[in-house]
TrEMBL record:
This is Cytochrome P450. SUPFAM superfamilies: Cytochrome P450. Belongs to the cytochrome P450 family. It is found in: Membrane. It comes from Thamnidium elegans.
Amino acid sequence: MDYLNKLSNPNGPIHNAVDLIQKLPITNRLTDMYKRSSKNELYFVGAATFITLYNLTSYIQEKRQKLNLPPTVPFGLPFLGHGLYLLFMPKTFLDWCNNRYGEVYNLKARGKIFTVTNGTCGEESLKADRDDLSLDHGLVRDTLYFHYVFEPRILEVGTEITTRVAKIAVASSTMPRYVSGIQKGLEAAQAYLLKEKVNVLDHPSPFFQRFVSFMSVPTLLGEEFASNIEVIESFASFTGDIIRNIPVFMLVPTFLHRPLLPYIQSPKKHHAIMEKHISPVVRQRREIMRLAKEAGEDHGFEQTFLQGLIEYTDADTNEYKYSDKEVAHGVLMLAFVSAHTTSTNLSYCIYWLLARPDLMERMMAEIESVAPGNTPIDVEVLNKMTFLNNFMREVLRQGASNLGVGKKAMEDFTFSNGYQVPKGRMVESSTRQLNFGTNSIRSEVEEMDPDMSKNRIATTPARDYISFGRFFATQEIKMSLIYLLRNFDIKTVNGKKPTPMKRIAGTRITNIDNLRNICLARKMFVSSCCSTEMGLEARGKRQDADMTTNEDESNNVSTKFNYRIGPLKRSRALVKD
């Protein structure tokens, strides 16, 4: 009550302050200006004042940091920053910034400042130690939001342990022993996903995720999972569940993320599947390993990726570092990296071949020349396919975003040119510029040239974990392309050339179909695919003998996978038996 009495006292401090402000000359001038101004003039003055205060605040914050900060590109709008330039003219804008401000500069978007690197400093950003510039915090947490899906120890499996295991399990020297498993996975995928004579893929992205999972699961986890459809489907769909939620998290304020989780994500479903199938295998293998150790014998398990996680021990206690449940959850991190990255780039390869018939012709000619007919595919055959190798590398280089590989500065970081970024700042690399020299060069579909790749490596996050499986992924993609092109005529239903890659604000958009309705027709049955506005129809007569042969082959392949499944969305077949 005493406080309220002081407020109501006409001689109180608040009343005195108000009286003082009212007596100032500037107060009368502002009041007169307000009365004389129109509504539009007031809007203009208010906007100008807001922009001035906004920029003044940013300027004061930068000056308070005693660092040699990179230059900030001007002409940014409040909140939007440079977002409109990145949205409508990313290549031209970034090339202008690179030429004007050098290898390190700051941009603003979505109310935040981030640093862009290119050239030598861009390479430094990619190669920086994770304790300085962290891809884990920049991409895994702040972009993919994996910390909402996994516990901290599981994130450790994905960001640290997988790199160490990968150096043994999927090193370049181990690729020959994966050929057989990948080939079996291709045959299983074809038997399950491409049963019909003519298959139309209404949604290519989920199809390629499932297609790749048939190869990845048995080779990375073990043969006992080769026919486990539930694990294979979880491997494939987990990727889509993660990617679909990213736009929601980007638009919604951070403090509302946690309350939204029960409504937009389904990680528990995938966790339950992995616990159901992976955990028993982990316990069983560890028991066999214990008995083998007591007997002084080798356990005999193949050194797959899963086996590496099972055997991983703590250096201090010499005991298994992760429980069977944690290993099962950690497998989902592997699922995202393998299924998402490989399926995305495999689909891009298909899109590029459809968009450029001349490249398709060269690809088919090399396959027929190096591996005619049903010549078995091995590493030696793959190494002879120089055009396939250059095409793969060019697709990877073309697939780089204008800005990508976001990392967060864990400490104040200094580049070789003397510029510094403060702790907590996001650092983006101009990855397309690192691949081609500028963002604009060879950016049109007609300019895509595999011969220009010259066997150069595409930009990757270097020493970080995202690139740990690049040898295995490229081998999967190459073998998949050969298998699909050998056995299927691949066309678009409407006959139009697709856009190979989609970008928004200069960033490559994954898990979104660049086109709908791809036709895969078995070559032994359909000589050509023709499309109409209503859909695709197969032309030509089918011989009874060929039909019988194909059905027998399909049945023989299918009997190798003795499992039952529930209703799943399969490729829609337009030619019925």
